Amino acid sequence: MPNSATPTHCPYCALQCGMNLTPLQDGGVAVVERPDFPVNKGALCGKGRTAPAVLASSVRLTSPLVRSGGELVPATWDEALDRIAEGLARTRTEHGPDACGVFGGGGLTNEKAYSLGKFARIVLGTSQIDYNGRFCMSSAAAAGMKAFGLDRGLPFPLEDIPKTGCVILVGSNLAETMPPSLRFFTELKENGGTLIVIDPRRTKTAEQADLHLAPRPGTDLALALGMLHLVVADGRVDEEYVQERTVGWEDARAAAMAHWPEFVERITGVSVPQLRDAVRMFCEPEHAMVLTARGPEQQSKGTDTVGAWINLCLATGRAGRPLSGYGCLTGQGNGQGGREHGQKADQLPGYRKLDDPAARRHVAEVWGVDPDSLPGPGRSAYELLDALGTDIKSLLLMGSNPVVSAPRAAHIEERIKSLDFLAVCDVVLSETAALADVVLPVTQWAEETGTTTNLEGRVLLRRRAITPPEGVRSDLDVMHELAARLGGEKGLEKGFPTDPEEVFEELRRASAGGAADYSGITYGRLAEENGVFWPCPAQADAAPADSEDSEDASLDAAAGADDPAQDDEATDDGTTSAEAKGGAVHPGTPRLFFDRFATPDGRARFAPVSHRAIAEEPDAEYPVLLTTGRVVAQYQSGAQTRRVDELNAAAPGPFVELHPRLAARLGAADGDPVAVVSRRGRAVAPARITTGIRPDTVFMPFHWPGEGRANTLTNPALDPTSRMPEFKACAVRVEAVRN
Ligand code: SF4
Q1: Are residues 672 and 639 in the same domain?
Q2: Is any ligand 1 atom within 6 A of the Cβ of residue 17?
Q3: CA angle in degrees (0–180, nearest 5) for 470-475-479
Q4: How far apart are CA 75 and CA 77, in angstroms?
Q5: Are strands 65-68 and 656-658 parallel, antiparallel or unpaired?
Q6: Of 328, 358, 391, which residue is a domain's last?
Q7: Taking each helix axis from N to C terminus, what angle separates 357-367 and 500-511, rounded to the nearest 10 degrees?
Q8: How confident is the model at residue 571 (pLDDT cuts 50, 70, 90)?
Q9: Which end of the chain has the lower number of beta carbons within 10 A, N or C?
């Protein structure tokens, strides 16, 4: 192992902060600042700083476990792998391939996500694969695809934010979820720009805002429409831009004009003067941005809600222009890359569609299989979990903990328990792993090499800095071994290399010509550069990224999926034709859409959306709204961060945030246990009383299992396009807990 600092990236969120790892005498590593990485310039939140604690945690799994006599007991790797292969093979024989489910995670590297999608489709032959990234940003992805023809979290680097004039941050609490990113907004204000935060709670992020709008949860679609109404009424539409660069304005305009500001005030609780202030602040500067996160996205109308915010950008000419645009600012460590390379139910690598014949042909050729042998699209994440024990009899799960993170979690826990067979790969015995028939202990970020793609679309190299504990293997090893056991007679294991760079070379070829084209990216480049933005085709004649020609070339690649000429750009040995010819290397594409959008005609699409209610409005029995989210010291289901003493000291358990008026009605004091009850269950946690939340709303963080599990309460009503569950709003009642 190296004895000097190893530059790498944080294992947690989609910011993918850079860090150096230095070796310690005891064989561990310490996190040291890495100021050269432009996203965080050395700054880290507590989760990143303490990440090595999980590597050496006393609860780290170091031996496979198999269930015997009702208990999980240590086993050899061969015993455990044999049990998994037998379980999956039995299901496939008795019930057909689609009775085998596969569930991945947004934390898996690109190489693992790619291999998992390939494993499901050519080893198991199942269509039933999806991943927990569906729960994070799928609505923004769907809205971006509809509007721009391409989904990349941010179509510009974060470093553009301080140079714009105004940012509307919708449903994002960056101060808790991605603290190092706050610097971009501080610099924005120092440069004279303004920040508008839209959130039902007065969060730490909202406290930084020049204007904070606090709509009722689930009404930000109406808020965006009300702002667009005022844009039209005040004559602030950029008519020339709309004419030249968009399609569908008249329908979107008509929908917005039906949302009078006074009507919007009644729906949202945001006053008309506040609405006018927001429009003025957004429209007066030359440049402006709208950035959404889980607030608008985790709704049963998340795609339409994000579409309404994109409409505001399009009508004012603030998309596909320098220092202006729409972006999505959230996600897991590899939420972006994880959805580009094939672990999503409807996708093949390179952001290709599974139901596109040309895409199937291209990927099948790379995989060496008949295109007709590839299954079609499967179920979305919640639908897949809901089918466990009925249509789906066995499940292979990697990098996810749905017992804590899925909506209607008690029901999902029962569905998991009803499986014939469950295998889980994880680093600790998560709440889901504890239910498994076989648990495999796998390597973590600092113990392995692989790539991730952050929310800017910047592909990054995580490097191995430490030797994994004895008894632990990589997920890539697991897939290789299972392919050998389940398809050894066909030699399928040869298609599942254990070397991540070898997997990436295949991924490059599979993505070539797709929307998310990585064919011009190599490990060698990533080791030398601070990430490469996709699309990065392997084109010998590509011009510099920020020139107009380069944007055209890149967007042609993004829009022109399955162009055979581009498919030819990557050769069998993984080198690109540009490299083979000694030609120029494509520099990547930090900024998208300047000259054209990635739609067939190059124009962006307005979304003709109207306000509609959330799936479960409050009523007499359940009169309060519950919204859920995160706290700074814990991450997602807490499977890793709940194992870190420093983080637990800062955030030891769940709580219910509620307004003093609601607390007074209950007779509850700060710290008293209160019960939150929805149609799906009951959760109990201490009250945290604050005027920073609306009196009609309570908030719970979702990181904990057990009695205070917020997802016991949440509503799995799905967005019709993205299939995102409605984590952000459901009807509950709140009760004091006596004795
Ligand atoms: Fe890691 Fe995200 Fe914290 Fe950065 S902000 S250190 S990527 S968890």
Answers
A1: yes
A2: yes
A3: 120
A4: 7
A5: unpaired
A6: 328
A7: 150
A8: very low
A9: C
Distance (angstroms) between ligand 1 centre and the Cα of 647 equals: 13
Q: 535: cis peptide before it, omega within 30°?
A: yes
Global pTM value: 0.93
Average pLDDT of the chain is 93
Residue 527 lies in a domain: no
For 303-367, the three-class secondary structure string (H helix, E strand, C coil) is HHHHHHHHHHHHHCCCCCECCEEEEECCCECCHHHHCCCCCCCCEECCCEECCCHHHHHHHHHHH
The two structure tokens encoding residue 618: 């409050």
Amino acid making up residue 96: G
Assign 537 to helix, strand or coil: coil
12 lines ligand 1 (CB under 6 A): yes
Q: Domain check: are 96 and 38 in the same one?
A: no
pLDDT tens per residue across span 297-352 = 999 999 999 999 999 999 999 999 999 999 998 888 898 998 899 999 999 999 99
Q: What is the DSSP letter of 494?
A: G
Ligand 1 touching residue 329 (CB < 6 A): no
Q: Kind of pairing, strands 730-736 and 673-678?
A: antiparallel
Provide the CATH number for the domain around residue 42.
2.20.25.90
Task: Please tell me the predicted confidence (pLDDT) of residue 3.
Answer: 60
Amino acid at 523: Y
Residue 41 lies in a domain: yes
pLDDT of residue 719: 96
Which residue range(s) make up the domain with 42?
6-55
- Same domain assignment for residues 233 and 202: yes
- What's the CA-to-centroid distance between 459 and ligand 1, angstroms? 16
CA of residue 727 to ligand 1 center, whole Å: 22
Q: What is the pLDDT of residues 96-143, one digit of tens each?
A: 999 999 999 999 999 999 999 999 999 999 999 999 999 988 999 999
446 and 378 in one domain?
yes
Within a 10 A sphere around the Cβ of 470, how many other Cβ atoms? 7
Query: What is the CA(434)–ligand 1 centre distance, in A?
Result: 27
Please indicate, yes or no, if residue 515 is contained in any of the structural domains.
no
Q: Label residues 433-443 b or e (16+ Cβ within 10 Å = b).
A: bebbbbbbbbb
- Residue 329 CA: distances (Å) to CA of 171, 224, 290, 306, 738: 10, 18, 10, 12, 41
The least confident of 18-22, 60-64, 241-245, 542-546 is 542-546
> Cβ(361)–Cβ(107) under 8 Å?
no
Instruction: Give the number of the atom of ligand 1 that is nearest the alpha carbon of residue 180.
Output: 5
User: How does DSSP classify residue 368?
Assistant: T
Would you list the DSSP string of 627-671? EEE--TT--TT-TTGGG-HHHHHHS-S--EEE-HHHHHHHTPPTT
